[in-house]
């Protein structure tokens, strides 16, 4: 199990990015959270098997059809056993 903290920038709000991300992450069996940021980016914490986390990080670079992803920053994140699903959080 590994964890990653993601920051996704570009045109990623108002295009269904979070819902798309949640669907992809849940399909891969990942846990954590995703939210919009006040600066227009999307932030997420994901954790699970190393290969599935690597896949969601790669997927994050494309996003749904209406999105335009400029950058995905992925930083190592400690695994938190309290996460048992992938949830959407409020914008911060």
Task: Give the helices and strands, then pairings.
Blueprint: E1 2-11, H1 17-27, E2 31-36, E3 42-48, H2 50-60, E4 68-77, E5 86-88
| Cα Rg | 12 Å
CATH architecture of the domain at 15-75: 2-Layer Sandwich
CATH fold type of the domain at 15-75: Alpha-Beta Plaits
Q: Could you give the count of β-strands? A: 5
Number of helices: 2
CATH class descriptor of the domain at 15-75:
Alpha Beta
Classify the secondary structure makeup into a structural class. alpha+beta
Q: What are the secondary-structure elements, in order, as H or E?
A: EHEEHEE
Q: Strand order within the widest sheet? A: 4-1-3-2-5
Shape: globular
**Mean pLDDT over the full residue set:** 95
Main beta sheet, described? 5 strands, mixed
Q: Helix fraction?
A: 10-25%
What's the end-to-end separation, in Å? 27 Å
Kindly describe this structure.
This protein has a domain at 15-75: Alpha-Beta Plaits (2-Layer Sandwich), CATH 3.30.70.100. It has helices spanning 17-27, 50-60, and strands at 2-11, 31-36, 42-48, 68-77, 86-88. The chain is built from 2 helices and 5 strands, in the order βαββαββ. A hairpin with a 5-residue loop joins β2 and β3. The radius of gyration is 12 Å and the shape is globular. The protein has a 5-stranded mixed sheet with strand order 4-1-3-2-5. It starts with a strand and ends with a strand. It is α+β, with helices and mostly antiparallel strands.
